[in-house]
Write a structure and sequence with these properties.
Distance between the termini of chain A: 69 Å
Protein name (chains A, B): LacI family transcriptional regulator
Largest sheet of chain A: 6 strands, parallel
Pfam families (chains A, B): LacI, Peripla_BP_3
Oligomer: homodimer
Number of helices of chain A: 12
Shape of chain A: elongated
Keywords (chains A, B): DNA-binding, Transcription, Transcription regulation
Strand order of the largest sheet of chain A: 2-1-3-4-5-11
CATH topology of the largest domain in chain A: Rossmann fold
CATH superfamily of the largest domain in chain A: Response regulator
Order of helices and strands of chain A: HHHHEHEHEHEEHEHEHEHEEHEE
Structural class of chain A: alpha/beta
GO molecular function, one term (chains A, B): transcription cis-regulatory region binding
CATH class of the largest domain in chain A: Alpha Beta
Chain lengths: 339, 339
DNA sequence: CTGTTAGCGCGTTCAC
DNA sequence: GTGAACGCGCTAACAG
């Protein structure tokens, strides 16, 4: 049989005092006698009293919990962002509910509904790659529920947003490849439904154009995901070209690792015959041989900043007069997989 | 200004009916006229009514939320376990609160307290490496709050537990190294405060003993963590030995990757001069050169099973008559880093 | 210093 | 078919 958790009423009954007195004693209310306070606190400890936040939250209309929805938790990118979020929230006593949409808009909506019912104080969302319609997010703002979008954009939705300047990162990478003498630079793009993938593709084209390197469509292939497996086929396709590339700029490190694998299998030498550059600076990347050149993103800061903005929004009663769009800066890291 | 979320009272007032009627209409109570039901449902939709689960949970004494505490979320091991957990809970409509202890017992306790106050229905915990005293976990069982321990043991604590048979996995790995001709087999152990690390170390010694290979203390070094960085120094120490090892069995893939890095830098050829075997089957492992031999663990199943047991416990009113200790089986995967 | 009352939002009696 | 009253656990306002 389940014995009920102890409540202030329990300890009030035991001590023959009123629940409010117990409440006051427990909350260090000034007007309370030392004796009763001590008695209450001691009994609370022996009975292992834990305040029921459900009741308190119902009263306060605030849960001190924020909801986080990410496409996936497994990637080093998002788990590092979550680290940043937790390190900001923890000292503030704010809890996180985390859920993954698995890149599905339906799951995203369902998680959203569930979190909203739980009355989280606000949302931190990086939309799924399927999410092209933002009605469900719009509902949040319509109901005055604070929301911060991070990493992936929802174009047209007017809320706080925190991004990494993908364009700059990709531009740095491609420009660097050009400057090291590469002329047949290929790009393995990510799913183009993602704003991040589109920005990187655009930067790729712009950087080539700026340096008068012709953009060839056959050098642009799209991967359907972010793991090494997703890099295999696109790379095979590139190597099979009549004039194969002398450099590959991949959407992320995962795909780049798959690309390196195929390239080495084909007997080509990296970086002598072909350079490879990734994106994200996955913690493993520097241990590959050759070590992977990449674009580092301030993931931890991204999490921290997003959480900080959300908390500010929550504490300011969600005054929407000053929507913030912040941009963080990535940095090219040159390692062994490029000249 | 924050406009309050709509409640059943709001829509009752609007329709000139009582809140109970609204409640019934929303919950498909049979005894309700179709007209009022339709009216209620429509107004609820336009007003974007979301039931307040705080109130409901307070009433039901159940939150449909479970608390998960892991040492870190960044590792492929734990994030894959979390995947398994979510895939079991999601279809059941159960939410997860996730938090990381960062291998600190103090953080673990504080998270625990916070989750308990939120009244999660149960806990899924993999204790921090610092956690040697289990009083805080004991309190949960004393208060009849369901708890399942997974991956890392809390010896002496009588609750449901789900493990991987580490001993078997490590034994397979070491025995295989012996059989492929290695005689100077080193082990980079993990923090020995961890049951998992101790089991693997014991299996290492037992496997050597069984095959009459002498166990030498200088071949056993302890790493303080699980990333490639943590593998660097221990490996340097091993290579500096008068008679360096011809095989390294590392506590996990992260450390093994660091070891491979040092070994290759030293000009040694893997696996001809020295074999390397890891543990965990990190998704990146097969893309290294040489690809890393490792011990695969059923992480996803570990998560699923732990969650399933917890849910059963919760739904059975936490009847503690039949504590379960389950063990899942790991599997050696031979790749290029060993003969 | 302490007790009483009320209400947060909801579902569930028990009436009518 | 529907409404009124009650209580989940807690704090704040109002009395004493």
């Amino acid at each position: 049989m389940k014995k009920a958790r102890t409540t202030i009423t329990d300890i009030a009954r035991e001590l023959n005092i009123s629940p409010s007195t117990v409440s006051r004693a427990l909350n260090n209310h000034p007007a309370i006698s030392k004796k009763t306070r001590d008695a209450v606190i001691e009994l609370a400890k022996t009975l292992n009293y834990q305040p029921n936040l459900l009741a308190l939250n119902l009263l306060r209309k605030r849960t001190n919990t924020i909801g986080i929805i990410v496409p996936e938790i497994t990637s080093s990118f998002f788990s590092s962002v979550i680290n940043g979020i937790q390190d900001l929230l923890s000292p503030l006593g704010v809890n996180m509910m985390i859920s993954q949409s698995n890149e599905s808009m339906e799951e995203e909506k369902s998680i959203l509904r569930s979190f909203a019912s739980i009355r989280v104080d606000g949302f931190l969302i990086s939309p799924s790659s399927e999410t092209k319609n933002f009605d469900h997010l719009k509902i949040l703002t319509d109901n005055n529920i604070p929301l911060v979008i991070f990493d992936r954009d929802c174009e047209g939705l007017e809320v706080d947003k925190v991004f990494v300047d993908e364009y700059s990162g990709a531009f740095q990478a491609v420009e660097y490849l050009v400057k090291t003498g590469c002329r047949r630079i290929a790009h393995i793009a990510g799913p183009l439904s993602l704003s991040t993938a589109r920005h990187r593709l655009k930067a790729y084209k712009d950087a080539l154009a700026l340096h008068h390197v012709p953009v060839k469509e056959e050098y642009i292939v799209e991967s359907s995901g972010f793991t090494p497996e997703h890099g295999i086929k696109p790379t095979q396709k590139l190597l099979a070209l009549p004039s194969p590339p002398d450099a590959v700029f991949a959407i992320n490190d995962g795909v780049a690792i798959g690309a390196m694998y195929v390239i080495k299998k084909a007997g080509l030498v990296i970086p002598d015959e072909i350079s490879v550059v990734g994106f994200d600076d996955d913690p493993h990347s520097c241990y590959f041989s050759p070590s992977l050149s990449t674009v580092w993103q301030p993931t931890y800061e991204l999490g921290m900043l997003s959480a900080r903005i959300l908390m500010k929004r929550i504490n300011s009663n969600n005054d929407l007069s000053d929507i913030r769009v912040e941009e963080l800066y990535p940095e090219l890291i040159v390692r062994g997989s490029s000249k």
